[in-house]
């Protein structure tokens, strides 16, 4: 009887490149404030220096557009795409639980996961905001760090579909992320189709107990002895107030 083939663990160089890809995705999905738009040449150069891979190719497709847009146009596109459309919002637990009590518990569990890894939360986006989840994955690693991404595989696929339908260049960043995840199963594809047709579960329950205190955006996390802080986006509420 043949023994099952064990997957070959990634080399240190592969692990480092994967973390860099995730960190770049986290940055590129943040609100394009003045700090992020000023960093576009650095981000474009970092993407261009990546070893060839499907994920790197998708990110290059995004930065080609991102680098050439006016700052006001970038801000407007981001708000219209992620803050004003539920189908392409970046809060992952919404796709799994909708506006139900289960979502509140999922947010709390995710925040506890971050704290257990040594991360401090100090206001900002909710813990299921995709840039936050990507930053956690980049700093914590393939196993526990990427577990939330695997758990929310279907929501990520649905966001990608919505961005593709809207012809948003941000679809390239989601495509890069999908290229790093395990292939979807038939059950995943059926669930995504059902979500696209019917939407997530619905229940008239607020999330204030879990959102009032806020959770840290990517750059505010403090993992033990890890990387320097990244650019910090304002919350969605502040973004829309600033645009009035």
TrEMBL record:
It holds the Pfam family Nitrate_red_del. GO terms for molecular function: metallochaperone activity; unfolded protein binding. It comes from the Bacteria. The keyword DNA-binding does not apply. Residues 199-244 are annotated as: Disordered. Coiled coil: none annotated. Keywords: Nitrate assimilation. The keyword Lipid biosynthesis does not apply. InterPro entries: DMSO/NO3_reduct_chaperone, NO3_reductase_chaperone_NarJ, TorD-like_sf. GO terms for biological process: chaperone-mediated protein complex assembly; nitrate assimilation. This is Nitrate reductase.
């Amino acid at each position: 009887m043949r023994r099952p083939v064990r997957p070959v663990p990634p080399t240190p160089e592969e692990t480092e490149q994967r973390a860099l890809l995730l960190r770049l995705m986290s940055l590129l999905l943040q609100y394009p404030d003045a700090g992020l738009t000023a960093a576009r040449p650095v981000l474009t150069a970092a993407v261009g220096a990546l070893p060839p891979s499907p994920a790197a190719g998708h990110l290059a497709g995004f930065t080609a557009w991102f680098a050439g847009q006016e700052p006001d146009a970038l801000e407007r596109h981001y708000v219209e795409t992620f803050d004003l459309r539920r189908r392409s919002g970046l809060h992952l637990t919404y796709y799994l639980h909708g506006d139900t009590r289960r979502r509140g518990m999922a947010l709390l569990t995710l925040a506890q996961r971050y704290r257990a890894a040594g991360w401090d939360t100090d206001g900002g986006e909710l813990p299921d905001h995709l840039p936050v989840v990507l930053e956690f994955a980049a700093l914590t690693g393939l196993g526990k760090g990427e577990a939330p991404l695997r758990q929310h595989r279907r929501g990520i696929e649905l966001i990608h579909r919505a961005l593709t339908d809207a012809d948003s260049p941000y679809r390239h960043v989601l495509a890069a992320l999908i290229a790093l995840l395990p292939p979807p199963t038939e059950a995943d594809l059926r669930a995504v189709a059902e979500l696209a047709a019917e939407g997530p579960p619905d229940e008239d329950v607020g999330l204030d107990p879990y959102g009032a205190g806020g959770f840290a955006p990517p750059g505010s996390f403090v993992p033990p002895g890890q990387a320097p802080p990244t650019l910090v986006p304002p919350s969605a509420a502040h973004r829309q107030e600033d645009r009035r």
